[in-house]
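Format notes (please read before filing issues)

Several people have asked whether sequences and structure tokens are stored in separate files. They are not. Every record keeps both together, in the order shown below: the sequence lines, then the token lines. Line labels are part of the format and must not be stripped during preprocessing.
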Amino acid sequence: MSLARPSPVLPDHIAQTVWRGDALGGQTAPVLSSGHAALDMELPGGGWPCQSLTEVLQAPGVHAEWRLLTPGLARLVAQGGTVLLVNPPHGPHLPALLREGLREDRLVWIETRTPTESLWATEQALKARSVSAVLAWLPQVRSDQLRRLQACAMQHPALAFVFRRLAARNDASAAPLRLEVSVSGHPPKLPPPLRVTILKRRGPLLDRIIEVPHWPNGLAPLVQRRAMPVQACGPW
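Then the structure lines:
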């Protein structure tokens, strides 16, 4: 006689809220497609989570955030959304962003002088209902400060991204979604794809790297032509 107990049957209203650790989690809040099909397949809910903090880690000298985010942000802007930037390391290159669908009149850029000002500006942005996406560069943010930002993000209907150094990879983080982003590939593999490692998500561990072959609009054909082998013209 088997002593195994049958799995309990939960009422529908409870079963919908239960998440099993070996399954990719869903999202009770809305999501926005990242614009990268391979990445969406591995993100809970199939896209960037709203009402939640997403942490992006990059090595020094790597600035791949725009290549990662512009496809999704362009959809947001096309719907009338506003994107707020807190202390980006470099001024946004507006012509390139415009080619990607990010209009200048839908971007707000806040320049701060200290980490405290950056943190305060980010928190205020997460309380502004007129903001559709918050992108904050906070290289010195602490774990307790991330918890506070996550609490704010949970009350805000928009997207929230925090960019940090790769050195923070092993630090504790309240962000439900953490990504490591790098750029790889050299001639003849051009344009080089982004390499995305999901460090943390609501779901099982992903032990592979996701390649995202996005390149700014208008630039990929030029780079591909330059990567083509030169045809011989002889004999003379």
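For reference, the curators noted about this record: Strands lie at 31-32, 48-49, 52-58, 83-86, 107-110, 133-137, 159-165, 177-183, 194-200, 210-212. Residues 144 and 174 are 8 Å apart (CA to CA).
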